[in-house]
Amino acid sequence: MFKIRTYNAISSKGLSRFPAESYQVSSESADPDGILLRSQKLHSEVMPSSVVAIARAGAGVNNIPVADYTEQGIVVFNTPGANANAVKELIVAALLMGSRDIYGGMNYVQGLTEISDSAEMGKLLEKEKKRFAGAEVQGKTLGVVGLGAIGSMIANLALELGMNVVGYDPAISVEAAWQLSSSVERMDNLEALLARADFITLHVPAIPATKHLINSKTLAGMKATAKIVNFAREEIVSTADIVDALDNGVIAGYITDFPTPELLGRSDVLLMPHIGASTEEAEENCAVMAANQLMDFLEDGNIRNSVNYPQIKMARNGGTRITFSNRNVPKVLGSVLSILADSELNVVDMVNKSRNDIAYNIIDIEGDFDASLKAKIAAVDGVVHVRII
Ligand code: MLT
Q1: Is 276 in the pocket of ligand 1 (CB under 6 A)?
Q2: Closest residue by CA, ligand 1 atom 6
Q3: Do 260 and 281 share a domain, yes or no?
Q4: What's the domain range around 217?
Q5: Is residue 300 part of a domain?
């Protein structure tokens, strides 16, 4: 029986993936094998030593101390792409609302509560509507910073809207590159993108390298008419520098779902809660994907969409499966195989993959496995974590 501890409201479609006969799923579990969460911040949580995997139903993992967990052998998963469509749709709304004063117009109409005569209302609105006129996005240039699952979807859709699209991503994956239309013009650096774009949309993770990517220096290279859309993470922009740039006419607008007090009450800023992925479909997709990945790891040791461990999969060959993670240094795998050989255990199949400083192994062996061997493998210098499944 595997135990899963949940945080936050996880879609029932995801929770129902766990078969009741082999999983106990609860927000109270004291000694869980796996954690399933959305936005709960784990930095100050003490993780029970029973935990081997954490799955985030979402893309960003800045609520999880990933580096610490890597050291402890805990595999962290996310669900790239599962909410991309929801975010993409909200970005389209942001582009349109940033081009035309839809919000101002709607607010104006809602404020006409003193008028009871519809002919009078119609006349007034006909006179006033010019105050809410705007421009079309067709023919404008969208700069997409970060061309992962979400960024590449937005880039392709913006082309459909008749926009010119320029993109920048120094770490674009092969998979994302395949998704991207060849009409998206690849920029060599961020500055080149910022100088070209009428709208800039950010789709990079919040990591030290992206902290305040948008700051007074990068803002200075943008068009005075440029508008920035940030539905990614607050830390990617320096909000103080954005306010300064807006005050001084360096840029024209900021649209974000990370509101902070200094952004309130400005006509050049559009704010909403962080709702990019808040659709029924996205919440279901993320929960189902996270649950599937967690089960595949707990039951078979396979790793799909981890942010700290390598992608790895091996079909079961019967017998016993040993999985272990180790520091990515020579001799560790050899030492483990020697332990198995000394115990007369035949390896039927095995796979070893590494990612940065960590390596991960799946070994299927024939015959009975003496439980004391687990401790022997765990004691090998460099081994981080061992499971027998
Ligand atoms: C994500 O990281 O997937 C989105 O920003 C939505 C969320 O935070 O849940």
Answers
A1: yes
A2: 277
A3: no
A4: 136-271
A5: yes
